[in-house]
Amino acid sequence: MEIKRENLIATLGGEEAVARMDSEAKADALEDFLSSELDKILLSKDPFPTVAEVEQKIPTRHYRMGVGNLFVAQAPGAKVKILPPMPDKPTLYDFFALRFAPANHVLQSAALAMKNGLPEEIILACLLHDTAQALMKADHGYWAAQMYTPYVPEKTAFAIKYHQALRFFADAAYGYEYPDLYRRLFGEDYVPLPHIRADYEMLRKHPWYDAPRLVTVNDYYSFDPNAKVSIDPFREIIARHFKQPKEGLGSDNSPVAHMWRTIARPDMAL
């Protein structure tokens, strides 16, 4: 989503008001602004672009759409900020507070899943499903599943991985429609990539189909700019289902420790 910095600043009361805000307040304000802009996109009456028209916009941006949130300034002309240091033995809570924040969308998603009475494995999947976008947006479901596989139940990792594929395919039985946002982002004539189509065909016959499908349902409908959520309601679920390494995430010598280290220290050049 492209935004104009001056529009964001205007909604916050001008440059002077923004200068008085701390980093967390600015992050929350940006998240709210993006949510509002998303609503405008969804309600827009403008015709959907084609794939070719979407591709023509690539050289007009100051960033690539698939880059992780930690590695690029969100607004044209903006600068990345200095990140607070991570603890010596960081936990999942530390990453939520210091690298994934404000994380309103995934917190809303998990809260909706909890309200809907879904199993704890699915609630946890909703809580974690988009957090890898701090590292990489492209194929983020696959990145996230890999990042969490050593620490969560198998079905949770499965749901996280394949929610990405199921987003592109409607399912009336679950009340899930193909989002208009995707038509605007990818083009109205967009055809899902071969690996997405292949995974969808596999999932249709899989006994765990409902796991990633429930993430998509509780994903797409969780962009309320007025919702105030925290990680506190999910602490017991995390304690039961997340295997926090005693050495700290990124220091436990797991196959994915490097991913956590990269999120912890995104300014390391080598």
Task: Give a brief rundown of this model.
The protein has 270 residues and is mainly α. The protein has helices at 5-11, 15-19, 23-43, 51-56, 92-100, 104-115, 120-128, 140-148, 154-166, 180-186, 194-204, 210-220, 235-241, 257-264.
Order of helices and strands: HHHHHHHHHHHHHH
Question: What fraction strand?
Answer: under 5%
Number of distinct helices: 14
In CATH, what is the class of the domain at 92-264?
Answer: Mainly Alpha
Overall geometry: globular
CATH topology of the domain at 92-264: Hypothetical protein af1432
Average pLDDT works out at 87
Question: Largest beta sheet, briefly?
Answer: none
Q: How many E strands? A: 0
- What's the CATH architecture name of the domain at 92-264? Orthogonal Bundle
Contiguous low-pLDDT stretches (5 residues minimum) are none
Distance between the termini: 29 Å
Report Rg. Answer: 19 Å
Topology summary:
Elements: H1 5-11, H2 15-19, H3 23-43, H4 51-56, H5 92-100, H6 104-115, H7 120-128, H8 140-148, H9 154-166, H10 180-186, H11 194-204, H12 210-220, H13 235-241, H14 257-264
Helix pairs in contact: 6-7, 6-12, 7-9, 7-12, 8-9, 9-11, 9-12
